[in-house]
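Weekly sync notes, structure subgroup
Attendees: PM, AL, DS (notes)

Item 1: joint prediction request from the bench team. They want all two components modeled as one assembly rather than separately. Inputs as received:
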Amino acid sequence: MNRKRALISDTFKVKKRRYGTQKFGAVSDGDGPTDIRATLEYLMTLFPRRLFNDTLPQIVLKHQLYSIHNDKTLVDKELNKLRERGELLMFQLGFDADTFGLVFASDYKAKVLAGEEGRATRATVEKFLQKLPSPCTDLSFTKDKMLREFLFTDSEITQLVKSGVLTVRDAGSWWLSIPNSGKFTKYFIQGRKAVLGMVKKSKYSEVLKAELEERRTTSHVKFHMKYHIHDIVGAELVESIPTTSGILLRFVEP
Amino acid sequence: MLGFLTARQAGLDDPLRLRRAESTRRVLSLKLNPDRDVDRIHGNGINTIDIEAIEGRYMLSGGADGVIVVYDLENYSGKLQYTCKAVCTVGRSSKYVHKFSVETVQWYPYDTGMFVSSSFDKTMKVWDTETLKPAEVFQFEGNVYSHHLSPIARKHSLIAVGTKEPKIQLCDLKSGSRIHVLQGHRAEVLSVRWSPRYEHILATASADSKVKVWDVRRASGSLFTLDQHNGDKSKASSEAVNTAHDGRVNGLCFTGDGLYLLTTGTDDRMRLWNSATGENTLVNYGKVCNESRKRLQFTVSRGCSPEFVFVPCGSSVAVYGLHTGELVTMLRGHYNNVDCCEFHPDYQELYSGGKDCNILAWVPVIRASDVEEETKSANQVQVLITGNKIWKNPKVLELLHLG
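Output from the run, pasted for the record:
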């Protein structure tokens, strides 16, 4: 008899055993330890770099991770750990109060500096990136902080806004942002609308995930289909239902 | 489960562990039972239900037509098929019935001789259950969204009332007067709840996206306001400072021990707060659909480990793990929006009422007995596993030293 005291909740965990290598329909991810970093890297590969001529770092949205891992609280905790270690940066992308974009810190710094080559604002941006506390857990900065902690002057702050590293939030405070990300936001929202429209127009407003991935995309959808699918599933704009033929995506009325 | 039983027998485990394990198993197997029904009296949607805390036998329900019904939940017929009968009704023919929809009903916490109901006709009535006449009527200036009596109060008998006015009124049952007003909110107060742990602590939720926690003994304002970003001002826009949700906050529920507070808002989120410090525990429940313009009555299980939250979500009831935030199951059965749900802690049953005028009883599935167990006559083990009333049977409790 196992003398170790088990948690009552563990008694009710159902562990399904799969015999044989052939998997029909529903593919679930294992009960192994969740590797958020690996998932992040996989999602980063779905980001189309050449679309932006390599000027943007690879951006992943926070809720895309929820579509892969079941436990949202655990995902949040792991992301906070990565942010505290200084490896990951989180951004308020602006189109929804709840949507956050994630970029690897090293990626971000490299791309921003590359973008600033030969520009007048280069020196200020470099200074800002150096001053940025690592680990940086702040999404926005107030004027107070900029002037006192970072010792920037007003004109330098204007230069930073011009270069795109800071965006105006309201009088006297700025969001940390990714330069030239306007194009990304535009294509992303366009693509999301198009994919949602595809699901909605299907018979009964539902479509198998595998079939949706196969479909020919219109010119509105500039990103990889899988990127958009992870986004709409994670943001709970469609319901993900496991069936014997695979995962079914059903449109959810808002 | 047999492991738990053996450990309990041998004295290796605390008696409470077996009870909690069985309660949790029962909550995880909640289903609609064709044998259990609740009498259909309401002609319109059901807005609120309350099960009395003393015996767990009588249930009150308030409907959108102003009708209040008292049901008897106990099954003394000896048959499996049972309909919870309505014992008495304050119907449309009564002289004292509410003119408009009843929003909240609550039993007096200490005996079933009295109950309090509040309604959109701007009154709150304290009823005598025997005669079904109101013993006291409180008039207000705006629609009354919610009221609550403290379930543990010994030193006071205050009813906290949330109305369309931003001020929270405290009415005294003993003297019948409005003795206290709590100021601080800027919009209508949608939900009020006393803490089940401290009799002076009150939590209130308002349409101005704020949730405030008050100590009624204190003359100056609230103790603290719940902040969803935990003071991290960089996360949100500056108007959203100190808000519990990004929309109206319309549901409040303390956990059974009073240590945590759950809030739901029209931003489709549910948040779990530490009720002592006001800190957001950041448990992510995902999208909890919420379109209610009034108070949302949701409930937390008691006596299980881990605890579960039952939230009405559209036309079904969603069951989430309290601390993990994962969706355990969706209880589907209503034909229209579900407005309220209440957990019966003794039998681990859930009662939910909605716009389809039905109250549905979700009963734990009884494990089917095996062939060998059926042939044995007075088999105590069988009775333990298949009987669902056994935990209340004093003889068995005495035998197991669980009482």
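Discussion: Residues 17-32 of chain A have pLDDT under 50 and may be disordered.
Action: AL to compare against the crosslinking data before next sync.
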